[in-house]
Specification:
The structure holds 2 protein chains of 2 kinds.
Chain A (H helix, E strand, L loop, with lengths): L9 H26 L2 E4 L2 E5 L3 H8 L1 H35 L7 H13 L2 H11 L6 H10 L10 H30 L2 H9 L4 H29 L3 H7 L10 H11 L3 H29 L7
Helix pairs in contact in A: 1-12, 2-12, 3-7, 3-9, 4-7, 5-10, 7-9, 8-9, 9-12, 11-12
Chain B lengths: L6 H29 L5 H4 L11 H7 L16 H32 L6 H10 L3 H14 L5 H26 L3 H8 L4 H12 L1 H17 L2 H6 L6 H6 L9 H36 L1
Helix pairs in contact in B: 1-13, 3-13, 4-7, 4-10, 5-7, 7-10, 8-9, 10-13
Classes of the chains: A mainly alpha, B mainly alpha.
Chain lengths: 298, 285
């Protein structure tokens, strides 16, 4: 890399984005890193405490609980959304020839939930899950015969309700990416397999899935990292409750910083989460993207 | 494409897709139906179709009946929030496209920062926004950018600028250089080439990114709730409609419908670009 506008005109093009994001992300992060070593009261640095904030965060039950709920939530959502999305993608791909005309309408209807603001999703379900007038408890009571089932008042039920809401909103994302992956596969391969007498299940298991390996790895990592930041639906629908059973890691940092004024703890947890995320991103970039042949023009 | 064995399998598949679609849109449709019911019908007729369909809820949330309503309803009318959100979303789109294209051009054609920039941007795409939110709150407090539309636009760029840049980088590195070289020989400057040659070639990628960035910033919640305390954007303003009072669910439903309409319009008109953009964005970065 060379420096100076005269030597490399490219610098001029990169600098605005670079400066802007430096100012918006690196500077605040370095500042948070600095804060994480201090005892802070009301935005004022009281004294240097070394690693004490880190020790406190990592031994605090609320932080650990938020971290384990977020991890559980992330994996549970992935475990349902991926197979379901793959299943729908497979079916629509099989049907694609038959329903050519309706395909655009079907895609629009399938993708609709992804586009909703998460805040609106939370409010949609806040109405639909209401004990008295919500349609979902109503349907459950018709099916099960039990009346007055409250889905958000019990910790385990609330956690699973949140998982199913995410499944509702984000399975279409898996559908979309896996469906475009399936569409891109060359037809000759599957046609040859049919002639050889392979069943539909065998074709999917031994031919299509291995070819989609890279896309699957990318989609799962992407969604996994985005699930890890979950905030809106939990905040607006359950408020992290009952108790703190559905408090995510983002909500916990929000509580530290904006509700409890524990800025040292907020800073330390920020640094911890930043490191965890970057390790995953590093693995993602070095292994998954490299294997998929993404080179970034470098 | 394997031929389906028989008509029976086709029918089963069609039924599964139809059921899934119904499940997919059912909560949205129910909210839409609710939004056309008069206030009192939420108690007498919560599940059926509206007996006396009305636009009252929309008039209420958009501000017409705001002062006249008898029941306690202190949520703000949504029109100012709608305008604020539109300004934030469209400014974020313009800045992400212009700065993102420039950065991608510099990285791909001049190899500036081509080693560290993609990793940094990728990590910004995945980092939870909360880790920037609280130091940013302090920084914006010092700079007077709290409660400022400009501040929120800047915060939105933390995700959207890396997003647009990375997509532009991968699509630009696959594009042929010969037209650009020809233009250079004809005496055009790099700047002219970027906007007169490269941008038109990348038109469909630009449209896809613009549609996605619009939806991302329209839907944004975390920065909005932290950085905008009095001027509320739509997603945040809507939260104050959720008073927990069942009697106010029909105006809340109308507010929800207002908040999702722009995204639905974008989806219907830009479906092709959106699906391409989403898959391209994910697969290439």
């Amino acid at each position: 890399m060379r420096f100076g506008f005269s030597k490399n005109p490219g610098l001029f093009y990169v600098i605005p984005a670079f400066l802007l994001l430096f100012f918006l992300t690196i500077y605040p992060f370095v500042y948070a890193f600095y804060l994480s070593f201090f005892n802070i009261k009301g935005w004022r640095l009281v004294n240097f405490v070394g690693l004490q904030n880190y020790v406190m965060v990592l031994s605090e039950i609320l932080f650990i609980r938020a971290l384990s709920f977020t991890t559980f939530y992330t994996f549970a959502c992935l475990a349902i959304e991926f197979p379901l999305g793959l299943f729908i993608a497979y079916i629509v791909d099989e049907l694609a020839e038959k329903i050519k005309k309706g395909l655009k309408a079907i895609t629009i209807l399938l993708l609709l939930p992804i586009l909703l603001p998460p805040a609106s999703t939370a409010l949609i379900f806040s109405i639909s899950l209401n004990d008295l007038v919500g349609i979902i408890p109503h349907i459950i009571s018709i099916i099960s015969g039990q009346k007055g089932i409250s889905l958000l008042s019990d910790p385990i039920r609330a956690q699973w309700t949140l998982i199913l809401i995410d499944v509702w909103q984000w399975t279409p994302f898996f559908f979309l990416l896996l469906y475009s992956g399936l569409r891109m596969l060359p037809r000759e391969i599957t046609e040859a397999a049919i002639i050889d007498g392979a069943s539909r299940a065998q074709i999917l298991r031994f031919i299509k899935l291995p070819l989609l390996k890279n896309i699957i790895a990318i989609v799962i990592t992407l969604r996994g990292l985005w699930l890890f930041r979950s905030f809106e639906v939990q905040k607006l629908l359950t408020g992290g409750g009952p108790g703190t059973s559905t408090r995510t890691i983002s909500m916990q940092i929000y509580e530290y910083a904006f509700k409890q004024g524990l800025l040292g703890l907020a800073a330390a947890s920020t640094v911890i989460i930043f490191l965890v995320i970057n390790i995953v991103v590093l693995i993602y970039q070095r292994i998954i993207l490299k294997r998929a042949g993404v080179t970034w023009g470098a | 494409m394997p031929k389906l064995g028989n008509e029976f399998a086709v029918r089963v598949f069609l039924i599964i897709v139809a059921l899934y679609i119904i499940l997919n849109i059912f909560p949205i449709i129910w909210i839409m139906i609710l939004s056309f019911k008069p206030l009192e019908e939420i108690a007498s007729n919560p599940f059926g179709l509206p007996l006396n369909p009305t636009l009252f809820n929309y008039e209420l949330v958009l501000g017409t009946h705001y002062k006249t309503i008898a029941i306690s309803f202190d949520a703000p009318p949504l029109i100012p929030s709608f305008i604020t959100t539109s300004i934030v979303a469209s400014s974020t789109v313009i800045l992400s496209i212009v700065l993102g294209l420039m950065a991608a051009y510099g990285v791909v054609r001049f190899k500036v920062g081509s080693r560290f920039l993609p990793f940094w941007f990728l990590s910004l795409l995945f980092a939870p926004p909360i880790i920037f939110a609280f130091p940013l709150y302090y920084l914006f407090h010092t700079l007077g950018l709290l409660d400022n539309v400009f501040g929120l636009i800047l915060a939105n760029l933390i995700f959207n600028l890396p997003f647009s840049t990375l997509i532009f980088i991968s699509s630009l590195s696959g594009a042929p250089k010969d037209i650009e070289e020809a233009a250079l020989i004809d005496g055009a400057s790099w700047w002219t080439i970027l906007w007169k040659v490269v941008a038109p070639i990348m038109r469909s990628v630009i449209v896809a990114v613009a549609a996605l960035v619009f939806i991302f910033s329209w839907n944004e919640y975390l920065f909005s709730v932290i950085l905008m305390t009095t001027t509320k954007v739509l997603t945040v303003a809507l939260g104050s409609y959720n008073t927990g009072q069942v009697l106010l669910y029909t105006p809340l439903a109308a507010g929800i419908v207002v908040s999702i309409i722009p995204s639905i319009i974008v989806l219907i008109f830009f479906e092709k670009y959106l699906t391409q953009g989403l898959s391209f964005g994910a697969i290439k970065g």
